[in-house]
Amino acid sequence: MLSNITNIWRKELMDTIRDRKAFRQALLMPLFIGIFYAVINPLLTSVVMSKASDPVTMPAQGVEFADDQLVQVLKGAGITLFEYEGDLQAAIAAGKESAGLIIPQDFSTKITAEQPATLQVLVNPTTGGPFGGGSFSLERLETALNAYQRAIAGARLQVRNLDPGLLSPITLETQNLSTPAQRAGLFASFMLPILVGLLVVQGGLFIAIDVTAGEKERHTLEALLVTPTSDLEIFGGKLAAVFTMSTFPLVLTLLGYWAASNLLPASMTEGAVLPLYVILGAMVLTLPAALLANVVLMIISIRTKTYKDAQHAVVPVSLTVVFTAMAGAFFPPSEPLLYAVPVYGTSALVGRLALGSGVGLEAIALSLVGSLGFAALGVAFALKLFNRERLLYSA
């Protein structure tokens, strides 16, 4: 029995490897995906932080009414005001400018007279798209104006021989106790569970279709069915081949993710490094879920007559797995037993592992038992469908 399963496994693998172009893509694409997921977040963060620290030239009206102290505080925050000619409000509403400042004529007079003064800030956060800078000027302006208000209030207290510290009776000291591994895991705890969901369903998708619906369409399945091998041996050999091929993209993608995240310059990652044990743990936790997905994909594909039909038929499975993985990333299990839910429990565990928040043995056991248990049920169900007549004539 084992020799028959091994022969079928070897035959399916050789058929897949002979298609060198497809096999090459099966190896290179996972690496690309892993590197892409690892690079995209630090890259976007670097772009956002760079824009947030770049000098800002802000349009304003009534610049001549601002006192020198306000102008200097704004310059210290990297904000330079320039007098805008025309309708500033209309320009910002149209998206031509992201933010603007209107200084009333009596501003300096009221500050000198120790009366409440008002500055009007006009913003359009949609200017330039998500990374166009619509909200960055406002945030920096608010910080600068707070500093200006503290300076004015402090000067007024000193005139009255009062301690400026009266304005700040409490000093807040903040210490960041997170480790570099935890900082690296913060983003990974969101991206890795989703990546795991994609790998689980996509890793063996095409070979699962090819060894079932593909062989039926090419009329090569008949030759295998006339051999004395049993239904269990045929299904076992094909499943072994599908699972073997699905491990390649899973391992390569996760290793590519780890390598890329650790090779990025420190200016992008702030020294945050993702430990290798997170990736290795993700592999161990994900493989049983991948096996279950392989079984489900084969069950669905064998009930179709053509490769194209099978591709359409497995779409709901792909979407279900990805959304379940996203649920694991956003809504971790509230009860230990929920870790036994395939894909959901796996994704949640991978997220916890990335955060370094401690993964209990009970949760790991439940996740593995849940995936393997459902996979065993799937195999039992598949064998009821996997007989010679249904393989040849079902649609």
Sum this structure up briefly.
The protein is mainly alpha-helical and 395 residues long.
Residues in β-strands, percent: under 5%
**Helix share of residues?**
55-70%
Structural class: mainly alpha
* Rg from alpha-carbon coordinates: 31 Å
How many helices in DSSP terms?
17
- Assembly type of the chains comes to single chain
Order of helices and strands: HHEHEHEHEHHHHHHHHHHHH
Number of strands: 4
Provide the number of structural domains: 2
Gap between N and C termini: 29 Å
- Principal-axes shape call: elongated
Mean pLDDT over the full residue set: 79
- Uncertain parts: none
The strands making up the biggest β-sheet line up spatially as: 2-1-3-4
What does the main sheet amount to?
A: 4 strands, mixed
Task: Please provide a written account of the structure.
This protein is mostly helical. It folds into two domains: 2-42 and 180-393, no CATH class; 54-167, abc type-2 transporter like fold (3-Layer(aba) Sandwich). The chain has 17 helices and four strands. It has a four-stranded mixed beta sheet with strand order 2-1-3-4. Strand 1, helix 3 and strand 2 form a beta-alpha-beta unit. The longest helix is centred in the first third of the chain and has 34 residues, at 20-53. The two termini are 29 Å apart.
Topology, element by element:
Blueprint (H helix, E strand, L loop, with lengths): L1 H17 L1 H34 L2 E6 L6 H9 L2 E5 L4 H6 L5 E4 L4 H6 L7 E4 L12 H24 L20 H23 L2 H14 L2 H5 L5 H33 L2 H4 L6 H27 L4 H7 L1 H16 L13 H12 L5 H25 L2 H6 L2
Parallel strand pairs: 1-2, 1-3
Antiparallel strand pairs: 3-4
